[in-house]
Fold this protein.
Amino acid sequence: MSTGSLDRSPAPRPLWRRALTRKDVLSGLMFIAFALLGLWLSRNYPVGTAVRMGTGYVPRLLCWILLLLGGVILIMGLRAADAEDAPPPLRWRPLVLIPTALVAFALTIERLGIVIAGLLLIGIGALGGREMRPLEVAAAAAVLVFFTWAIFIWALGLTIPVWPER
Amino acid sequence: MELLSYLATGFAVALTPANLGFALIGCLVGTLVGVLPGIGPVPTVAILLPLTFYLDPTSGLIMLAGIFYGAQYGGSTTSILVNMPGETSSVVTCIDGHQMARQGRAGVALAIAAIGSLFAGTVSTLIIALFAPPLAKVGLSFGSPEYFSLLVLGLIAAVVLAHGSVIKAVAMIILGLLLGLVGTDGNTGGTRFTFGLVTLSDGIGFVPVAIGVFGIGEVIANLISPQQQRVVVAHKIRDLWPSREDFRLAFPAILRGTALGSFLGILPGGGATLSSFAAYALEKKTARDPSRFGKGAIEGVAGPESANNAGAQTSFIPMLTLGIPGNAVMALMIGALTIHGIQPGPQVMTERPTLFWGLIASMWIGNLMLVIINLPLVGLWVQLLRVPYRLLYLGILMFCAIGVYTVSNNAFEVILAAIFGVLGYVFIRLGCEPAPMLLGFVLGPLMEENLRRAMRISSGDPMIFVERPISLALLIASGALLVLIALPAIRSKRQEAFQ
């Protein structure tokens, strides 16, 4: 939607958009989405009978229950008065950068080793914070990578690559 | 007398230098992380879980239990000194504990919390030793239909007694059960919800889910919603020893808290949080002058602190004897046991007596250690509180990443943890408690297995669950709980209790 027009005057937003800020409405939709995804993924699983349950019996049963519960939660949310339970404003940086940092770590740890993967993790993770102090982050990264090495590789003796393989 | 010989076995295991050492490390590390702001026992245990996998099961579990008590204890310390509860079970400690600290009586508050915890820990350890064997016997006599109904009751009760919306929590359980089914179906060999990924054919790892939801999700939430300002009470902590008058007031409160906590901890969903809230309410009701509460009444610290420790301890009973986790920490314990190749349930006590009794003995030792180590170290813990979050979360991130990776040397699990981290934040944002999901997740395969067996026994007739008297009773109890919670009067009382 046109998020650019977030001006101060509270223009009367349409009902459905107000409803979409409610936790119950959103969580109802979330459960419904999970249930539908599950039902779709399990569409070809053999269901079997109650005596000889197939691969899909219990998963599909659970998905239907989840769909039902999600529907009830959604309706409860729609029927409730406009609540003050709107979540805090969303900040995208941490939500995107923290998982990105972990993914970067996962993609590099095996080939490039703990030093580079660790520095990447801390570096990208630090960008997700509220304030960025480069020197401090560099120091923290050095200390953390050292401690990780000391605990997991030196003390516990795990075989984790330290440097890039040649 | 059987009990004494069991306990002797247990102490023989727990008192070996190695296990003493692991208990000590667990307590220290648990306190260290638990003291850190914004990290309660659940994330602490989740983050530190991988550390215990390199030990043998007994030592690993002993260390994990130490981490749990340490984290619990660390939460009380921050409540008293900084007015910031590490987690919900020490919320009420803030009320009077922090007031005491402001009046310069922080040392006394910390000491009484420690003494109360130790007393409660001693009593509840005995209770576990007394009640676990008969309960496990009951558990062993259960067939699949009974066990299935017991799991249903356990999950429902966990939801009803916890705070938050019941229906959302039930939906979270179902979601957890579904996640638990990901992977290869042991009965038919078919794969489910694997998206064609080979790594998922063994199921979703327990560690990436736990660390993702409770570790990473929490970090994201803390970065998005600004942190509370922390003000460490600057008074020098002296006069640790409470006066005679303090003892006179606190001792009955410790007794009441211990009794209440021990009882509530056994209930699914009970555990430390419910215990401490209930104990505070009880103290306020029984006090001769209730107006003292909120202004630094020592009973307001002694009661809840004893209760939450007793509750934390006795919540091990259903987990150890029936394999049913009453709360998120116990779900983590079950996950840890499973990773060590132990199927939690009534058979653990008979099949692995040294593990079972060793753990129980080490609970008491851990409690003693906490008092001995922590009171002198309070100054050090306070220093830790000054670590700003912008550095802290980097450390958490590093530890989560390396912890998840090392569990199975599988980089994909780190990506899973990232995904569950985002999901964990979504749950927090939408007011969906992640704990019930974790309970469902660890119980999913067990429930399916028992459902299947029960249906095979009855040749597909679901009536088997109501024809067997024990199973019927358990299901009626679950239904009654759900109906009760729907009643307006009880619902409002419940909301009141959890604020």
Observations:
- The two ends of chain A are 50 Å apart (CA to CA).
